[in-house]
Amino acid sequence: MAVATGELPTSAVLKRRKVDHGKALDMRTPMPKSGQVRQRDASTRLVFRFSSETLLQQAVAGLLARMPEVWGVQILQGAQEYGKDIVFYIRGAFGEALPCACVVKNHSISGQVESSRGARTVFLQSQQAFDTPFFDGSGGSVFIQRVYVISPGAIPQATMSSIAGRMKERSGQVIFISGSQLFELFKKYWPNFILEEAGAIEKHLTATAISLADNPLSGVVSLYSLGTLEKAAEGPYVQQDFVRRFAELQVTNGSHFLPLAENLSGRWNRAAITEARRHLKAVSQYLSLAALWNLAKEPSLHSSLEQLSAALESAFGEGLRRAYKPTRPEVPNVGPDAAVALADWSSLARTVNTLGALVDEAFAPLYAEQRAYNEFLSQADDTLGDLSNTLFMQACNLSDFFQVAPGLFTTTPKTKTVVVHKEIIHRWNGPLLIVGAAGFGKTSYCRWHALNDAELFRTGKSQMVPVYIPLHKLARVECTDFDQTFLSNIGESGLLPKGELERPHRLRLYLDGLDEVSDLNQARRIVELLRDGLNQRRVDQSIITSRDYIHGPWLTWMPRLQLKGFGEPELRELVDGWIPRDSPENVRFFEELAKSDTLLPLTRTPLLATLIILVFRQTQRLPENEVRLYDTFIDLMSEGWNLAKRILKTSKFGPQIKKTVLRTLATNTHEKRKKQFAWADVRTAIESHVKSKGSLVKELSEELVQDGIITRGGSIYEFAHLSFQEYLTAKEYNGDPKQTGIRAALLTYLRGDDWSSQVLRFYFGLSGNPKALSQWLWDQHARFERSEVGHDEESGSSYDRVEELDGVVSELYEATALSE
Predict the structure, then answer these.
(1) For the segment 561-604, what is each residue's pLDDT rounded down to a tens digit?
(2) Can you list the positions of beta strands (E) in 138-259?
(3) Which terminus of the chain faces fewer neighbouring Cβ atoms within 10 Å, N or C?
């Protein structure tokens, strides 16, 4: 890449004095070795040096775009270029547009046309440029009137004469621009290219590679003492497909939140009135929320709903007064079960009927979106290749709205999963929002694709320049100017021309970690600034990554895809990258993994799969219930992953309080024999440990979801993996000196119930004295036998079951001794 010439001083000298382009400048300052450009005396030596022909083409295109009376500059790519690297128009003598082409060579052109050296290639390419038309923007075919042969090196007279001699019929239509002449043109029309920006892309790509070489996985390995990571810089990367999951949803009509008119004539108690008023407040809030998502009209119904709520309260109070103290004006203080007829219920019924119709009319866009949603689900294949599908985007919009307003919908357990190919980034030119839980590889996706883009650009196989930005760096930055926010590190006018100038290359932004911008208003400003820049064509494509809990109407303009996670092919590819394929260690890894009912499901998450592999590499064993692994998993997802990535997220709650709450939540859920739970269960677990109520409870619950240990779908919560729930339950039991919980779990297991079998195994792994644990097991069994005389033996002998558990204890501690 050209950064300077022998006639120009370095940028340090230029800062001290003004450049006079008409004079030869000081050559005494030594030039940098990497990417340097020198002017040489030998006629065939290069005057400029570019790292690839693609960069030279882009530089020439930028030069043409700055020259007067030149327009329509376009770099042609692929098989359809037919000898024309660049096409453009110039003004003829009478103002007519003359179509021209450039044949650009990033090497010296020498030899004769008759030989097989450079001159012959240039001759054939020039001839083809004249003979084959190109198609303009309107689809019309255009024949080239003039060809410019451009090389950064000097072109010998003999070579020019040889080419021109073979093209006598094109006399005067082939023009040669050699190194020194090209240099003068840059000095005249684009001096900043040489002085400041010729090396900007190259410097940017180098800086990108350096910044992305810092693999967060190396921080994890160091933090949790998982051995050495010789592949920290690159690591085996396995691409994943994307998915979009659509639940079977049905919108509840807004009018159903209003009391039924026919019920208003009946008897009402305080609980019924409170519930009716709560529903009226809810539908008012849903109207406002849906309007923000363009899923509801914005009628002035809020005051009418408030008035109806107040009227219900008043009618109930008057009913109480009439029933219990008809001669006194105040509402009597009666019990909560007191039921009375509502005063003036017929007037309330008329209001409800009128208001119900208006509410349904206001929700008409939401109902229309529901119909589009159903149509998409009925038509959609299992794979999707066209992200511009209107029904797909509408379905995504409703699915995302469901996450913020689950109370407006009824759902079933059924879902429709649509798979999008892993190479969609090269098939879709628009923006993408890629989401996934913690550890699903969002940062790895950006790192790998940004480095891949850089390599393709440097080798001339692509014109896409990557720009990678960890968004946590913008968390407290004023984001008002697009270039300053996103493009400040890659140069200015040469790379990103203002106004109408054509940019000779393409830019792809990788904005990694929207969830790491804790202020949602700041996150929204970043996204809106990005959208404006895309509309103004400041960049060509953007990829945003985020954890999957962030939703908002400001995100719905781009397709939202979820990383699918690993299946068996991806897992095998990852393992082969760490442990040589078909080696005894590789075979043993999969044999041991197949025996583990707990670890195998976790390998769907790329980060957890990698940690499992690293532990195996270190210990050469993979115990089924490796407590150390789960300690690492929980710690990583509580805050350790952010620490490994060097991201400081502000939190009012440290990892210890989070783990304490999670243990309580897991135990409560497990003892109810459930895998899913509701917000009330989360609140109960938090309030048992956090003294402050109200907003702090809600904040902590949101952080637990953001960390990724628990997930939320609509109003339903669950642990990211059932084994996390089981492990945390075991941790809670392990800290109970009374052993109440673990005794109950063992009792149910001895009766033939396997619900807590995995909890028991984790508990054994957490206990430090195998001999004492074995004795405890047999003592508990003896007590069980005395108290359960004649118990049902249909599920197997309790003796056999406790003997099996004792064997598990021995296996666990044998594995621990080997690993140490």
Answers:
(1) 999 999 999 999 999 988 999 899 999 999 989 888 778 888 99
(2) 141-142, 146-150, 174-177, 242-251
(3) C
